[in-house]
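Revision sheet: structure tokens.
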Amino acid sequence: MPKKILKGTVVSDKPNKTLTVVVERKYQHPVLKKVIKAKKKYSVHDKDNKFKNGDKVTIVECKPYSKTKKFEVMGETK
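Predicted:
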């Protein structure tokens, strides 16, 4: 099974080696046909503490680092 690759924005970098990234997606409601924006927060492993708030990053699924951290930073998105 392929790993998930998502793009999002860093909203918190306070914990050591951890980022909180918000990923936004748009989809159409099946009955109402209205376009809806949905947001989800992910805890992401950042081994070098390299990224700061507001950075656009690409994250990739990986082995669990903890109960909530199942993604790691792949790189910066332009």
